[in-house]
Design a protein that fits this description.
CATH topology of the domain at 64-147: Ferritin
Number of strands: 0
Order of helices and strands: HHHHHH
Bound molecules: fe (ii) ion
Number of helices: 6
CATH architecture of the domain at 64-147: Up-down Bundle
Strand content: under 5%
CATH superfamily of the domain at 64-147: Ferritin, core subunit, four-helix bundle
Shape: globular
Length: about 160
């Protein structure tokens, strides 16, 4: 999402700077997850995506600047949900080392949520940001009210 957004809005200087940092951090996390899997001899395999991302993407409005705001707010919701889910894993995972890893990721996702929210607040009027975030959050909770049969961080 960070890469996608920064390449859509390359002239938004603050956005590009902040999202470059997020993209780098997400890639580091991907590398760390792969290292965990390698240590346990588990090959990374493709998984069927839950409907969460697809249904959130369907909420993106088509006209600019609305679309830009929606990209930022949907990303912030995804990060907030990652924060919540990784927090639950960090609290309940019986493997202490893995639980600590999840808690580290959780802290990053909370920061990422904040970055997307601040970017929305930087480029858009706060009242518009708040009311659209509320609409999207309601839609997101409806998406999550149907459980995907295969558990995922976002399902
Ligand atoms: Fe993130």
């Amino acid at each position: 999402m960070a890469l996608n957004i920064m390449f859509r809005y390359p002239s938004w200087t603050v956005l590009v700077r902040k999202l470059t940092a997020i993209a780098r951090e997400e890639l580091e996390h991907f590398e760390q997850v792969n290292q965990w899997l390698e240590r346990r001899n588990i090959a990374l395999a493709p998984l069927n995506a839950p409907p969460y991302g697809k249904r959130l993407k369907a909420l993106l409005r088509h006209q600019e600047p609305d679309r830009g705001l929606d990209f930022l707010l949907i990303s912030s919701l995804i990060e907030a949900r990652s924060h919540e889910r990784l927090g639950l894993l960090g609290e309940h995972c019986p493997d202490r080392e893995l639980a600590a890893f999840y808690r580290g990721l959780m802290a990053s996702e909370a920061r990422h949520y904040g970055v997307y929210w601040l970017l929305a607040d930087t480029y858009f009027d706060r009242d518009i940001v708040q009311s659209r975030l509320e609409e999207l959050a309601i839609a997101e909770s409806e998406i999550l009210s149907t459980l995907h049969p295969e558990p995922r961080i976002h399902s």
